[in-house]
Amino acid sequence: MTATPEQTTATQTALQPVGGGGVVVVERKQPGQSYGQGIAKGMAVVIRHFAKSFTSRIDDKSDQAGMFTVEYPEERMELPEAYRNMPVLLYDDKTGQELCTSCFQCERICPPKVIHITQAKDPNTGKAVPAAEEFIIEYDSCMSCGLCHEICPFDAIKMDHFYELSTHDHLAMDQNKAALDRPISYYQAIAPNLWAAVEANAMKKLQNNVKRRPGNIGVAPHMIGKTQKALPTAAAAGAGAAAAARPKTPVAAIGKNMSPEKVARLEAIRAAKRGGATMPGESEIVAPSPVASGESGLHVAESQAGLAPSPATTPAPATGPVAAVGQSMSDEKKARLEAIRAAKRAQGGGQ
Amino acid sequence: MRAMWEFFFGVGWLATLTSYLTITTAILVAGSLVMMLLTWIERRGLGYMQDRKGPNRVGPFGLFQPIAEAIKTITKEDITPTDADRWVHFLAPVVILASTVAAFAVIPWGNLIPVDINVGVLYIVAVSAVHTVGILMAGWASNNKFALLGGMRGVAQAISYEIPQVLSLVSIVMLVGSMSVVDVIQNQMDPYGNILSWHIFTPVGLLSFIVFWIASLAEGERPPFDNPEAESELVAGYMTEYGGMKFAVLFLANYLTNFAICAVTAGVFLGGGNGPGSDIPILGTLLSVFYFLAKSLGLFFVMVWIRGVVPRLRIDELMHFAWKFLLPLALVNIFSTSLWIAIIRWGAEQGMGIAEALGAPGSIARIAVAWVVTAIINVVAFFLVARLNATRGVTTYQATPTAV
Amino acid sequence: MLKTEELQINIGPQHPSTHGVFRLMATVDGETVVHLEPVFGYLHRNHEQLGEIWTYLQTITITDRLDYFNSMINEHGYCMTVEKLASIEVPERAEYIRVIMSELSRILNHAAAIGFWLQDMGSWGTTLMFGFRQREMIMDIFESVGGSRMMCNYMRFGGVARDLTPNLVEQINLFLEGFPQFIDDFERLMMENEILLARSRNVGVLPKELAAAYSVTGPVIRGSGIPYDIRRAEPYSIYDRFAFDIPVGSVGDVYDRFLVRMEEMRQSHRILRQAMEQLPQASGSYINQAYKAASKQQGLRLPAGEAYCRVESPKGELGYYIVSNGGNSAYRYGIRAPSLINLTALNDMCRGYTVADIVVILGSIDIVMGEVDR
Lengths: 351, 404, 374
Prior knowledge:
The structure holds three protein chains of three kinds.
Chain A: H1 5-9, E1 23-25, H2 37-55, E2 87-91, H3 105-109, E3 115-121, E4 128-138, H4 147-151, E5 157-159, E6 174-175, H5 177-180, E7 181-183, H6 184-190, H7 192-210, H8 224-227, H9 230-245, H10 249-254, H11 260-274, H12 290-306, H13 319-326, H14 331-348
Parallel strand pairs in A: 2-7
Antiparallel strand pairs in A: 2-5, 3-4, 4-6
Chain B: H1 2-9, H2 12-49, H3 65-75, H4 86-103, H5 120-141, H6 145-176, H7 181-187, H8 203-219, H9 231-234, H10 244-269, H11 283-307, H12 315-345, H13 354-357, H14 363-392
Helix pairs in contact in B: 1-2, 2-10, 2-11, 3-10, 4-5, 4-10, 5-6, 6-8, 6-12, 8-10, 8-12, 10-11, 12-14
Chain C: E1 7-11, E2 23-29, E3 32-39, H1 47-53, H2 56-63, H3 71-86, H4 92-121, H5 126-146, E4 155-156, E5 159-160, H6 166-191, H7 194-200, H8 208-213, H9 219-223, H10 230-233, E6 246-248, H11 254-278, H12 294-298, E7 305-313, E8 316-324, E9 332-336, H13 338-343, H14 346-350, H15 355-365, H16 369-373
Antiparallel strand pairs in C: 1-2, 2-3, 4-5, 7-8, 8-9
């Protein structure tokens, strides 16, 4: 196996690279002088490994002899931070608010199409809010490619390190939102550096979104009871801080296509929130921006209709959005929406 | 034991029957236990050679793993292929196991001797040859092409390797002057506990040991001669269509054969149960059993060790190896054995005064002369045969490329 | 002469040594092979069709599943093709990372391939375990960098998904330190083994001309004595910067292929050493900043046209062919899979040898059914 580039490169000038190196003819071992010493050499190597297996184990990546086994249930391999198994959703530890805004990016990128999101909507108005009503991932078909977590602009979907998912029950592998939700501290524990890199951005986006979520929407289901008391203060603190920092922005952002009186009412609600009052009551809720909310409400309805209902989901009544959306709509708009909806239904009927 | 029975019951035939039944049961039980131990040694040994643990879950150090597997195989459904020859398919494991167990009749466990017949060595060789019939039966009856190929390979291999195996034992029989296994072991007994009196420590015995051991590996279908059951080629060879209990029996027979080989090798070449203190009345018996088991299991470990290193020989190379390498060596060894005997036993008065002619009369000098002469003959023969095989023995096939 | 009957054996689709669901219809005369017909298609997964439906970014995830022993090189080839069509610049550092991952992948593949080959030959597990230990260590590296051991999904258009952290660089250097020890161990263990020599010398001979005629690539053609290596024949990425030798055989038997693989591992180690040295000086980021956001990659629309790129996979020349009509997924997507094309020479390699040689010859081609059937 000696490299003899000088000999062979002459004939291989066409293949002469810039970096150097040539062609080597591998040296064939000629039999003839062997009386079993080749096997004896091999046996010496093997017995050395045998002996070393008792005394040492391979800890170092440069070791070549020693026990290599990691006895799984008792010992576990240290998982690298980047390790990805199955996607999970993150929520804020204190408030229970999910980072997910149901932007559908992950659902769209998922190669095996195992993510199914239902956008949440305001219970009173039917207006879509930036939160997921239901979030289902079919773990049994997930290929763990990690594209969803890579694309998520809100860092809401992350890859879990938990891998003991074996089950006899395939249906149980369909994880709903309640099963997917993990606190941020959990992810921070398994991947501290990765989280540190995105934390500031993610938390800022969360705060922005929280302002547009009414009530319990976007809160991890098992956190609802626990955070009822903590929620207002936390939200108030968050919103208050945001408002103090940039008093104009929320108004500008929300009020883009709002009538002045709506802006005023929203301001009132916000003031109430800031004051630590309870969440806005049903009568107070108004749907701003009829067209926009109508469209997104439609989207919710359609995606719900198109989704195969899972055991965990409780889809909202199909008439809900119509009624809710229609509250502050003119008749012709209603008619137009109805037409669009009918067209969509015809289109998506085969889903 | 027989005397005891006669003393208590006074019925001769009953005493004989009972004592032999007891011995048979003891052999079967001990054999099965040893087989379990062997599978454990094999798997743990191989595991450690490959830097992994091997079975370590059931019982301490995984010692009960074979029991768990026995339960598993025994409770599995017994399947006979539809078009198989049902009776032959059923009988093949029986024949194989029976021939293997029968060989244990004359193998002494240290000082414990089941039966001492005066043609013990011949008996072992003869009985274990029946094994071949069982392999052919299994291969044929399964109605499976892999099984058939495996069976054919098994027969060809077993018959070929029996010849060097027997011829290498002939040297030892010549040295000892008896075919009784007990006599062979007694011949290696030294009053001073000197292990140099074992057969393996003479040039004749060493070459005989090498030939016998290699041939026995082939007989026991151990790597590198595991062609009949070559996993990567023939799935499981003649065992392909066997499952459950029948497979367990074949597996048991396989390991019992391996143990028999180790036991015979230990007895014939390594002095059986000989060792320091093995002639003390009762403790010595225990000690001798211990020595015997230690030697046998040590030899089995060598088998495992070899398995951890070598690839499998191709069937034609395997045949060449038997006929062109082992057989000439065995024949040369018979020749040098006869020289050894001649030099040691015959002096000038018998017309063989080699030692006297060299100016060194006396038994020690005779042994020295015999040692040197046979060592030279055997070493030269070994290297010569190896050389001839390396240069001439390689068969090259010529592939016939089609026009492209 | 006695008339004997020829026997037809179906080796596979369920067989320990067919490396997946693969069937060999062997006609044997005794133990000698008269004719051999490979039958495949049992693992067809519609790969190329999927690549025409999924977006370019999504398709990266399934190139991992082609030859699942070296997912990194598969991704490399695919990303190169897309980059060529879309004229995406790849920063220098990203190129280095790609080369490091590709060469690690080559070592991984060869170590496992030699282990499997010797396992097929009947060397009971030891060689395989030794080879797999290297694979295990490299997969640990892949896991740290890409997140997954086999299906790395690491390369992106314009770079790679994640940067090499100093920790990882350390890990790779540690591996490179220990690796020569493995080669030495392995050579002592197997290189002079008489049985290995007897089993592999002059077995499965594929003459030079026949090899070229079958257009086999990779270690198979190099074993036959033709120094054809894409890294040298058409240097892609930054392979022209490294000094490495191309090992070739002289006879073209399975022994030569084994030796070529052993030497290629050494050469990969050599390339890795150079790449790890040069990595700190490499300019640029780990990915083209314009394509850093995943959403940018997801929405990537290639200009209409076609591109073909090839890389030297451990099995041979791996080519990707993409036709775009301007949409966000390929209009036509085709793969030149080295395993499949190397397999076509199997009949000529096996004829005249024995049943036991079939598995050895098949193992020496080193096929992965995921790539053959796609």
